[in-house]
Amino acid sequence: MIRDSLILAKRTVTKMFRNPEQFVDVTVQPIIMTVIFVFIFGGAIAGSTGKYVEFALPGIIVQTIMFTSLTIGVNLNTDIQKGVFDRFRSLPIARSAPLFGAVLGDIVRHSIAITVTLVFGAIIGFEFVTPWWHVALAIVLIIGFAVSLCWVSVLIGMLARSSGAVQGISFLIVFPLTFGSSTFVPASTLPTWLQGWVSINPVTHVIESMRGLLTGNTGVVGDTLTGQVLWVIASCVALVAIFFPLATWAYRRKI
Amino acid sequence: MTKAIEAHGLTKRFGKTQALAGIDLEVDEGRVLGVLGPNGAGKTTAVRILATLLKPDSGTALVSGRDVVHQAKEVRRTIGLTGQYASVDEDLTGVQNLVMIGQLLDLSTKQAKVRADELLAEFDLTDAGRRLTKTYSGGMRRRLDLAASLIGRPDVVFLDEPTTGLDPAKRDDVWGMIRMLVKQGTTVLLTTQYLEEADALANEITVIDHGKVIAHDTPQGLKRQLGGQTLDVRAASPADLPHIRELLVSVGTREPEQPSPDQLSVPVRDDGALTTVVAALAQEKISVAELSLRLPSLDEVFYSLTGKTVSEEGAA
C-alpha cells in the first residue's frame, strides 16, 4: 500500500509539471503575490517595502499553501469523471492508495511553493533572523496544516458534481479564511467586529505562528508564540477529527 | 470446460432505474462472449459488477472461480478492463501510463518498462509512446487503453464497447487486436451495440434489454433465429418500387420494410437470395442504385426478438 501510494504520488507530481496551471500555482503565483503586495502596497501599509516583506511573506506562504491544498479535491473529482479511477479500482491495490498518493503528491507541491516563496523573499530582502530550527518548524507546521485542511477539499471533491463546482466551493471557503486574517495587515488596524472573526479564524493563528517562527515578531493577536503554535496544532487535530472521517466515508462511497 | 465467468441472477438498481433485473452470463475459458444491447440495457452495469467496480444488489458472480464481492482483490489480479471512455491519464505519456500501471501490478520499474515497450510495439504505438496521451487520436487512445488493461497478462478481459465512436478502419484495427488476444488464450467479455461486431468476434452472444437476457445463442443460431441476413435494395427510379417489393416478398421471410422513400429491405433465409434477386432484376430489366446483403441492425434484432423497435421499447 505504501509503494502503491508512492507510485501514485509520483503521478500527481508528474502531472503538476505537465499542467501549466497547477505548476504556476506553486511557482509563479507566490512570486506575483509577493511582488504585488510588497512593492505595490508595502510602502503604504508598512512605510517601506523592506519592513513589509518581513510582515507579508509568512502570510503569502500560508495563503499559497491554502490554495494549493484545495486542488486535491478538483484533481480527484476530475480523475473520477474521466474514468481514470475505474482503472485504479480494477487493479489489485488498496482502495485508499489513490487518495494517499494524491496527498503525498501534494506535500511535494507544498514544499516547492514554500521553497520558491522563501528563496524569492530572500532575494528581495527578507532576512532570516530566527534559528534554523524555527524555520524548519514553520515549514512542518504549515505543511501539517495543509494536510489537515486537504480533507475538506477531498470531501467537496467527492460530493460535488463537477470539478468546476469543487473549485467554486473551495474558493468560497478559502477567501474569507485567508483575507479575513492578519495575512496582509496587522489585526489591530481592522474594525472591531472584524477583529472578532480574525481572532477566532484558525488561519490567523497559522500566520502568527509562521510570522513568529520566521521573523521573531509575535503577539499581534496577543498570544505568545508557543500559544499560537498550540492553537494551530489544536486546529489541525480538530480539522482531521471532523473532516478525515467524512472525507474517507465519501471517498469509499464513491470508490 | 471450466467457466471463466459465471453470473447468476444479478440485479442492480440506481434510484428509480432497475439497471439489471436478474441476468445470467456464462463464458467458458478462452472463449469470447458478446453482450449485445442498446444504450441503457445494462451492459456497462453488468461489466462494472463483474470487474468489481460495483456491488450487485443480489445475485452471485464468479470470475476465474472467485467471487466478485467477497474475493474482489483476487478477482482484480486476474482481470483487465477497458471502459467505454478511454481511461488513460491525459497528462501522462503513453509509456508513463503503462509503466505506472505495471508498477501498481507489483512489477519492478525495470519489468514495467519492458512490458510497456512490448505492449506499445504490439499495439503499434511505439512512436507515440513518449507523447502526452492528450495529443492522441481516439483510435490511439483506445489502443493504449486496451494495452493498459493487458499489462498484468489477465486471464479475463472486459471490453466495454471497445469500438464505439471509431471509424471503420480503426474498428478493424481493434478487432484484429481482440482476435490476437483470444489467440493467446484470454477469455473476453465484450459489450457492443452492433450485431456485426458480436458476429465477427464472439463465440456466443447474449442479447440483453432492460436488464434482462432476451436471447442467448451462438452467432449462427442467433442469425437463424433472426432470419439470417437482410437484403437492401435502393431503387434507381421510384416507379419500380412496387415491382421490387413483389420480388422481395418471394425471397423474404417477412413483409419488406421501407426504411427510406427509395429503399426496401427484407430479411432473407439464405445467401442464395441475393443471386435470385439479381437474376430476377436482370430479367425484368429493373435497374437499381444499390443492392446489398447485410446482418440485421440492432433495431431489427430487437424487432425480431421482442416485436418492438428499440425506440418503442424505450417509450414503453
Could you describe the 3D structure shown?
The complex is a heterodimer of chains A (255) and B (316). Chain A is mainly alpha-helical and 255 residues long. In chain A, 81% of the residues lie in helices and 0% in strands. Chain A has helices spanning 2-18, 20-26, 28-46, 49-69, 71-81, 84-89, 97-123, 132-159, 163-179, 192-200, 202-215, 225-254. The longest helix of chain A has 30 residues, at 225-254. Chain A starts with a helix and ends with a helix. The model of chain A has no long low-confidence stretch (mean pLDDT 88). Chain B is globular, with a radius of gyration of 22 Å. In chain B, 39% of the residues lie in helices and 28% in strands. By secondary structure, chain B is of the alpha/beta class. In chain B, a hairpin with a 2-residue loop joins strand 1 (3-14) and strand 2. Chain A binds chain B through residues 3-4, 7-8, 10-11, 14-15, 18-19, 82-84, 86-93, 97, and chain B through 48, 51-53, 73-74, 76-77, 79-81, 83, 85-92, 96, 100-101, 103-105, 132, 148-149, 152.
Counting helices, strands and paired strands, the structural category of chain B is alpha/beta
CATH-derived topology of the largest domain in chain B: Rossmann fold
Share of residues in strands of chain B: 25-35%
Helical element count of chain B?
12
Which runs of chain A of at least 5 residues are low in confidence (pLDDT < 50)? none
Sheet-strand content of chain A, in percent, reads under 5%
Mean pLDDT of chain B: 87
Give the C-alpha Rg of chain B.
22 Å
Largest sheet of chain A: none
Shape of chain A: globular
Computed structural class of chain A? mainly alpha
Largest sheet of chain B: 6 strands, mixed
CATH superfamily of the largest domain in chain B: P-loop containing nucleotide triphosphate hydrolases
CATH class of the largest domain in chain B: Alpha Beta
Total tally of structural domains of chain B: 2
